[in-house]
Amino acid sequence: MTLESNKSYKARLIGADEVTDIALVKIEASGLPYLEFGDSDALRLGEWVIAIGNPYNLTNTITAGIVSAKSRSMPSYDEGFKIESFIQTDAAVNPGNSGGALVNIKGELVGINTAIASRTGSFTGYSFAVPASIARKIVNDFVNFGEVKRAMLGITMQDMSSELAREMGIKDVKGVYRGEVLNGGAAYKAGIKASDVIISVNGKPVNSSPEVQEQISKYRPKDRIKVGILRKGKQKELSVVLEGSNIVR
Fold first, then answer.
1. Residue 198 in contact with residue 187, Cβ under 8 Å?
2. Which domains can be identified in the chain, with CATH numbers?
3. Coil, strand, or helix at residue 9?
4. Looking at 103-107, 145-149, 168-172, 219-223, which range is the least confident one?
5. Non-local CB neighbours of 186 within 8 Å, separated by 6+ positions
6. Which 8-state DSSP code applies to residue 232?
7. Rounded Cα gap, residues 245 and 82, in angstroms
8. Residue among 88, 63, 85, 67 nearest 76 (CA)
9. For residues 144-167, average pLDDT
10. What does pTM read for this prediction?
């Protein structure tokens, strides 16, 4: 591995995750500068961000843009599990940027650049990054377990719409509609029903399937979380012990 100072080190792979396209490598060195993790949950639409990478072998290239959207869905290499909570920006990202930092104006790491939406293979205005909240959890998993520990809620989901809200007699179009609750899964054991509407995960409001998935991605199997639901017009909070990813593939 060659650093910005042009010093090269022998790197050892600690772990690699195909779902997020993130790997952790280790070098034997000390006193190196590093980025602090920022709060990707606190990012606001329109906030300035900076993408750093090596597009087309142009080392240490910096581009700037704004946060265009959060919790964007993208296809995954893994058919059984996919990350559905990318940060979308208009900072120019091209082949060679993948794995580079996305930082806020404080210089904090808020994402890892990973993909672009393009028909040509080059930047056309849309780029995507894995949120720092998920990246940090993946890194910690590699350090502590040697692999990524993914938790699952054990449900299928559908975003709430005005039509669906009318059918269910719900006044506010918010939350995420529970489709199927899988037998033996975490949601099933916690008493969550197929007609419930998820409105929060550990106190964080959620209004789309990707937002639910992003929150669950921060936890590990056997972690206990609070899930806020709307059932027959009444709000409830249920305690859920998350299961491993083998529950839902």
1. no
2. 11-145 (2.40.10.10), 151-247 (2.30.42.10)
3. coil
4. 168-172
5. 151, 152, 153, 154, 240, 241, 242, 243, 247
6. T
7. 11
8. 85
9. 86
10. 0.80
